[in-house]
Structures are given as C-alpha cells and as structure tokens.
Amino acid sequence: MNEITSEEATQSQQNTLRTLVLGTGGQLGRELYRVFKGFGSVIGADRSIVDLTQPEQLRAYVRRVQPDVILNAAAYTAVDRAETEKQLARAVNAEAPRILAEEARSRNALLVHYSTDYVFDGTKREPWVETDPAKPLNAYAASKLAGEQAIQNAGGEFLIFRTSWLYGPFGHNFLLTMLRMARERDKLSIVDDQVGAPTTTLGLARATQMIVGGVLSGRFGDAQDWAGLYHMSCGGETSWFGFADAIFALAASHLGIKRPQLIRIATKDYPTPAARPRNSVLSNDKLGDRFGLQLCSWESGLDEVIEILGNEAAQ
C-alpha cells in the first residue's frame, strides 16, 4: 500500500471543497470566481440567484449549497447614493454578512469578507493599522463597519480583508471611468488632496486564494492563530490625480487613447453627497507578518491591468 503524503492529502481535501463566491456580477466576485476555478467545486452567485436583502432567502441558499468556504464579494458600493439609501446599504453590507457569519459558524465553514479603507476618517497622516479607531464619514462606510463588527461578533473561522481604491479590467471603477471620459472630453478635473493605494481585483483575488489554501492546509495554524481582520492593498500611495495621470500615461502607449489635459482640484471644489477620507493608505504589516505575503506596488498593478485591456482590444 502506498503511503499518502501530507501534500497529497491536502490536494485531495481541496478537490472535495465546495466554495461559494457571492457577488460574481461585480468586479471582485468575477475575479475570485476565475481564480478559485479548480479549487474544488466553485459555485458563483449574483443578485439574480440570491437576494442579499432577503435574510431567509440568503440563509436557505447557503444551507442548500452547503459550502466549506464562503467568499463574500457582494456589497452595496454606491457611496453617494447610500446617503439616501441607508437601509438598503445596511441590508447588504451589514445584515447579509451577519447571516453569512452565523451560517458559516454553524457548519464550521470559512468565511472571507471584504471591507473598505473608508471606515477611517482620513485624519491620520501615517498609514492606518487594524487597531486604529474606525470613524466612518458616510453611510456607506458605516454600513461596511457594521458588517465587520457583525462577523467578529459571530465568531468562528473568518477573515476580513479591508482594501482600498479597488479596480480591475472589468466592472465599474475609476480606471474604466477615466478611460471612457478621455474619449469624451479634452479636459478632466481630478481631486489631488485625497491619497490612497489603488488596488487591483487581480492581486486581491490571487492573495485570497493563497491565504485560503494555506489556512485549509493548516500551514497557518489553528483558527485562533489566523482568524481576524487584516488590511490588504497594493503598496505605495498616490492621489486620485496621480492615479489618473499614471493611467493616461500608459493608456496613450498601450491603448491608443488620447491623453486629456488633467487639472488638479481640491476636494472642496468637487462636492459630493458623501464625505471621503483624505488619507486612505492602509498598512499591510499585519498581513505580511501573519501570512508572509504582500501585494505588488500600485504602479505594477496598473501595468498589469492596462496590459490586459490592451490584449483585449487587440483581439
């Protein structure tokens, strides 16, 4: 009889896993579904399959799927509209995560949930760490913070990843908006006094897969060793203006998009219903210390996304 190695046993375990990805209609959910393909059985669900605003429907769906891993990329992300749709934002961003955490704990499943840099008020000059007090400036951020707290209160095996300025080659995000507007206008006014770290869905999904794989194989110890809240964003920092400037520098050479004139403006010159934090830069030290990984720089992430868009355009 051949002896089964620990590596073979881990692979066998992963092949029998059932992973549920919620929010596959969005940019992060779509990427998670792609990256986790081959990681056992992967089930994707968007709002047409399960309505996260209906608690009993969500509970019933999770119990029917019986997942071993739940990746919750579903979220209400209309930051300004949330000011007038607070109940809807809370239903998706706070109540649904609570239900998912309760269901995950009841079946000893791993829940991975994504939150936002916007839980902070932006007044700190240094990068934000996980233990800094959260002080949301808007309804969207408050609903996301409530979701974090609901998961933590439920306990069990969970990972909460706060990220920032998320974008990718698909979906709705700042990069794609900039490229569209460049085709329509010769001049663009961009806020230059809010700083953060643009983070790609590609990097976030790949890091999630690496961490989940390590957790399930026991490489990071028991749940008490790794369960909790972590910051996960690309390295470095820039302003929205700096991000836009870098986008158009690459887009001109890779996508053939004419570079518009960019005008620096202050936050006060671009009023919005929801206030934004001035500093959204997150420290990823805890992530690196616990899991031994870090995402690439925001510049490298942008290079990868633009390259994908260029390949898509050439086909």
Number of strands: 12
Q: Quote the beta fraction.
A: 15-25%
CATH class: Alpha Beta
Overall outline: globular
Walk across the major sheet and give the strand order. Answer: 2-1-3-4-5-10
Question: Can you name the CATH architecture?
Answer: 3-Layer(aba) Sandwich
Give Rg in angstroms: 20 Å
CATH superfamily: NAD(P)-binding Rossmann-like Domain
Q: Structural class of the helices, strands and pairings? A: alpha/beta
> How many strands, what sense, and barrel or not for the largest sheet?
6 strands, parallel
H/E series, N to C?
Answer: HEHEHEHEHEEHEEEHHEEHEHH
Instruction: Give the distance, in angstroms, between the N- and C-terminal Cα atoms.
Output: 51 Å
CATH topology: Rossmann fold
Question: Percent of residues in helical segments?
Answer: 40-55%
Write down the domain tally.
Answer: 1
Mean pLDDT: 92
> Please, how many helices?
11
Unreliable runs, pLDDT <50, ≥5 residues?
1-10
Structure description:
The chain has helices at 6-15, 27-35, 55-65, 86-106, 139-154, 174-184, 201-217, 223-226, 240-254, 285-291, 298-314; strands at residues 18-22, 41-45, 69-72, 110-116, 157-163, 166-167, 187-191, 195-196, 199-200, 228-231, 238-239, 261-265. Helix 3 runs parallel beside helix 4, helix 4 (86-106) runs parallel beside helix 5 (139-154) and helix 9 runs parallel beside helix 11. Residues 1-10 have low confidence and may be disordered. The protein is globular and about 55 Å long. The protein has one domain (6-173, 197-237, 281-296): Rossmann fold (3-Layer(aba) Sandwich). It has a six-stranded parallel sheet, with helices on both faces. Strands 6-9 form a two-stranded parallel ribbon. The chain has a two-stranded parallel sheet with strand order 7-12. Strand 4, helix 5 and strand 5 form a beta-alpha-beta unit. It contains eleven helices and twelve strands. The chain has 315 residues and is an alpha/beta fold.
